[in-house]
Specification:
The chain is built from five helices and six strands, in the order αββββαβαβαα. A six-stranded mixed β-sheet has the order 1-2-3-4-5-6. Helix content is 30%, strand content 31%. The protein has one domain: Hypothetical protein YunC (Hypothetical protein Ta1206 fold).
């Protein structure tokens, strides 16, 4: 089909890149992890020049410093924050810097590694 003003999706993407380029989002990587017999999904999401990193399980998650811990508390989420990471693998080795109230109830605390947190999150 011949579009008089160019393909609608392509035109819209060019508009966004020109006017809102720093807000473009790209899923860089999705990876399945098995920690202590439990399945987790790891995500690396590029947002402008930054990368949002998450490891998500059924009953809790690890998030990078981009995440809002107040929202995790509001929704009673089990969440641990690890800063200074750009890849899922880094989250497993680095130490937690903040946790939600629900995470504290489950015995998750700062100074644990990401892997230790995932081992404690219920299946």
């Amino acid at each position: 089909m011949n579009y008089p003003f160019g393909h609608p999706v392509a035109s819209h993407k060019k508009y966004l890149e020109r006017n809102w380029g720093r807000f473009l989002i790209e899923l860089k990587m999705e990876k399945e992890l098995n920690i202590a017999g439990k399945k987790f999904q790891g995500y690396e999401i590029k947002i402008g020049e930054k990368t949002l990193v998450l490891i998500v399980g059924e009953k809790g998650y690890l998030a990078c410093g981009y995440w809002n811990l107040e929202a995790a508390d509001k929704f009673n989420d089990c969440c641990a924050i690890i800063t200074g990471v750009k890849m899922v693998e880094e989250m497993l080795e680095k130490k937690v810097v903040a946790v939600s109230k629900k995470a504290l109830e489950l015995g998750i605390h700062t100074e644990m590694t990401g892997k230790e947190v995932l081992e404690k999150i219920p299946a």
